Amino acid sequence: LHPTTSTKDIAIRERADGTILLAGVKEETVMTLEEMQRLLDEGSVARTVAGTLMNNASSRSHSIFTIAIEQRVPKTTRRTHDCITAKFHLVDLAGSERAKRTGNVGQRLKESD
Q1: Mean pLDDT value across residues 3-15
Q2: CA gap 55, 84 in Å, rounded
Q3: Are the CB atoms for 12 and 20 separated by under 8 Å?
Q4: List of residues 6+ apart from 5 with CB closer than 8 A
Q5: Which pTM does this prediction carry?
């Protein structure tokens, strides 16, 4: 979720071919570690957090930060590909603490379900 996108504008859709689309999220291309860190920081600031008995800054929203790395390599006679790729998904699921231990009541308790 980009910080300027409302959570109401996010939708998960599936195409007929099975491809999953995420409407309302933003994809950015970066070239440096510093640029990637800036985006991770922006996303972290936009998250909803609230204190519980177990954690003063418990996340109240799910977060997925995907890093796709592409390395271009010189093509050689033994190598059939000129690009090596990897993908990492950093996932934080909100409300993973045990409800009884958090002391949550009302809306906070509903968020953790």
Answers
A1: 72
A2: 40
A3: yes
A4: 24, 25, 26
A5: 0.58
